[in-house]
Amino acid sequence: MASRYRDAERIARSLPLAPGAAGVRRRVEAVERLLEGLFTIPGTKRQFGLDVILDLVPGVGSVAAGGLGAWMLWEARNLGMSKWQMARMGANVGIDTLLGMIPFIGAVPDFFFRSNTRNLRIIKRHLDRHHPETVTLDGLSRSGRR
Asked: What is the DSSP string of 114-143?
């Protein structure tokens, strides 16, 4: 249990309010980790986060998870991503939210679909191409700092 609290505390500390592409990268990575990879199922490498847990709350949970996914879209829009990328990300969030609205059963497809991870991948690809100074390797920046 203590490691869960340490993970949540580490994620909260990693949410910088710094402007710019590097701050966006850190924020969306932290939110994706919170929504998709906060807990690991014992004996497996399969992870889940608040997205699946919130889907167990009928109606309201899916809307809350969709809101956090929409926040990632807002951050992507502020980076100047293309309309095509935004449409793909919006479709991911929409599908995830609609599937999650099925009471209790909606958590199962959400466990496998992982819209926030897909959207993070799209955002990272954009950042790597248009803001190469934000690229990180194994949690370290190019300068070797965390």
From this structure: -HHHHHHHHHHHHHHHH-GGG-EETTEETT
Q: What is the pLDDT of residue 19?
A: 72
Nearest to 128 by CA among 22, 15, 19, 18: 22
Nearest Cα to 14, choosing from 143, 142, 141?
A: 141
What gap in Å lies between CA 28 and CA 72, rounded to an integer? 6
Nearest by Cα to 65 from 52, 77, 46, 48: 52
Residue 131 CB coordination number (10 Å):
15
For residues 41 and 89, is the Cβ–Cβ distance under 8 A? no
Is residue 22 within 8 Å of 134, Cβ to Cβ? Answer: yes
Q: What is the pTM of this model?
A: 0.80
Distance CA 65, CA 17 (A): 21
Token readout for 46 is 């399969």
CA distance 43 to 49: 17
Least confident piece of the model among 28-37, 74-83, 102-111, 129-138: 129-138
